[in-house]
């Protein structure tokens, strides 16, 4: 991992994708973003004609009852904003990363790293990763990488200093262990 991980772009990308999808859908359906409207071909056509994929629509559809906090049968911008703010503060699950993260257009390297190291990043083991956990993992990874490089450099320097040469009959350490006849 050569660069520091920062989950900000991950959460911003998801929030932006959800908001763009919602904006297109709410402009398409004057009666609001309902489950029936989400399931319609009109929703898919509206999104694809605006160069948006349907992953966010699928997520909204499958999680409609959880997102519709006032249970009026319509998703509002406030309900969606509350959801994205909650993701940003409480974290995102592995499943949400697979569903929402792949649709954001963000660096696949960042997404793949977070998915690959999810269990290590999730330090509180709540099944979600936050931006703070992603950044902390990045710092820990960089420290470990630096520690390994330092250790390898030390070992390399030691092997140079204590050169093992087949023609040599001893090493620099031999002086430390005098033989009985040398005393």
Topology, element by element:
Elements: H1 8-28, E1 33-34, H2 35-38, H3 41-49, H4 55-62, H5 64-67, E2 74-75, H6 77-90, E3 92-93, H7 94-101, H8 108-116, H9 118-121, E4 128-129, H10 131-161
Antiparallel strand pairs: 1-2, 3-4
Structure description:
By secondary structure, the chain is mainly alpha-helical. The chain has one domain. Helices cover 61% and strands 4% of the residues. It has ten helices and four strands. The strands form two sheets. It has a two-stranded antiparallel ribbon with strand order 1-2. The protein has a two-stranded antiparallel ribbon with strand order 3-4. The model has no long low-confidence stretch (mean pLDDT 83).
Instruction: Count every helix, treating DSSP H or I runs of 4 or more residues as helices.
Output: 10
Q: Ends: how far apart?
A: 54 Å
Instruction: Quickly give the structural class.
Output: mainly alpha
- Helical fraction equals 55-70%
Gross morphology: elongated
Q: H/E series, N to C?
A: HEHHHHEHEHHHEH
Strand order of the largest sheet: 1-2
Number of beta-strand segments: 4
Radius of gyration: 28 Å
Tell me the β content: under 5%
Low-confidence stretches: none
**Overall pLDDT metric:** 83
Largest sheet: 2 strands, antiparallel
Q: Provide the number of structural domains.
A: 1
Summarize the structure.
The chain is mainly alpha-helical and 183 residues long.
Provide tags for this entry:
183 residues, two-stranded antiparallel ribbon, 10 helices, elongated
């Amino acid at each position: 991992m050569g660069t520091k991980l920062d989950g900000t772009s991950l959460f911003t990308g998801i929030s932006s994708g959800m908001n763009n999808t919602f904006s297109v859908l709410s402009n398409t359906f004057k009666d609001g973003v309902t489950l029936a409207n989400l399931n319609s071909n009109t929703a898919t056509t509206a999104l694809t004609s605006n160069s948006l994929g349907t992953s966010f629509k699928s997520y909204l559809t499958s999680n409609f009852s959880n997102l519709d906090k006032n249970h009026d049968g319509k998703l509002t911008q406030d309900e969606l904003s509350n959801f994205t703010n909650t993701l940003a503060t409480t974290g995102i699950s592995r499943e949400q990363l697979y569903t929402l993260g792949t649709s954001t257009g963000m660096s696949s390297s960042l997404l793949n790293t977070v998915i690959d190291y999810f269990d290590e990043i999730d330090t509180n083991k709540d099944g979600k990763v936050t931006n703070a956990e992603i950044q902390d993992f990045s710092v820990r990874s960089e420290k470990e990488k630096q520690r390994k490089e330092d250790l390898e450099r030390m070992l390399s320097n030691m092997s140079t200093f204590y050169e093992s040469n087949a023609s040599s009959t001893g090493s620099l350490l031999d002086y430390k262990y005098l033989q009985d006849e040398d005393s």
